[in-house]
Fold:
Amino acid sequence: MENSAYTASFARIYDEIMKSVPYKFWYDYINEIMDYYQLKAEKVLDLACGTGNMSLLYAKNSYQVTGIDRSEEMLKIAGKKAREAGADISFINADLCEFRTEEKYDLAISLFDSLNYILDIDDLKKVFSNVYQALKEDGIFIFDVNTITRLMSINEGTTFFHGKDYTCIWEDTVDEKNKLWQVRLKIYFEKTGEYHEEFHQERGYKIDSIKNTLQEAGFQHIDVYNAYTLTEASDDDDRVYFVVFKNKRPIKKKKTISKFFINLKWGIKRILLSLRDLF
Ligand SMILES: C[S@@+](CC[C@H](N)C(=O)[O-])C[C@H]1O[C@@H](n2cnc3c(N)ncnc32)[C@H](O)[C@@H]1O
Structure:
């Protein structure tokens, strides 16, 4: 199968096309989770960091950050943005299925359904094993995924994005049998006449098979939440967050009553976010 995602042409327009993506909202939600479990972190590993939007948020908030991505072109943009912001972030060009780090991290994150790009459960296990080795003994791994429910409900069809100097034609298809959402991008830069195509695929997994794979990689405690809540996730949800602990230890959570208020607060935040998107 083709593997031509995140080439130079899409990397160039990624941040513009994704400009309504709520990175700060995600950052705050992860902090909420950390606070709920009474956890602290200094060193953060941003897996599949792309153009570095989450890495930058962490670096600006005084975390020591390393970003990993297999797309050199996405990393070039990330590096440029970090330099312009005066942020000291290390970026590593590697495939998540193969990376090794010398440093050990308190927190590994992977957001915006990046792990859905791992199309095979054996590869997912390799990724999890690599993350396991990259974490400190009391390290935590927090990531989101699109569920099968979400991916299979995406409407097939074509969307056009018109930028200042480009047109991007975005064609969605769904392969129900293999639980794949596929996107073919056709990008045309009007001034230079450049034309590129690329192909993206995201695979959906059942929550239990991700949990089993994490356990096989060595992780000892796993909680899964419906996105932006502290409510246990189900396969019927759209996006879910895994909160994964490398080792078993007394897991301190705030009291149940706090969970109620946290869910209420995030319910309101979600409404405000959707209203912002409307205007
Ligand atoms: C949807 S983008 C998300 C990027 C970033 N996390 C964000 O929130 O903007 C998915 C990213 O995953 C990266 N990616 C996909 N498969 C990968 C792999 N096997 N190893 C490393 N990076 C990968 C892509 O290069 C791309 O930058």
In short: The chain has two domains: 8-148+204-278, 152-200. Residues 113 and 145 are 5 Å apart (CA to CA).
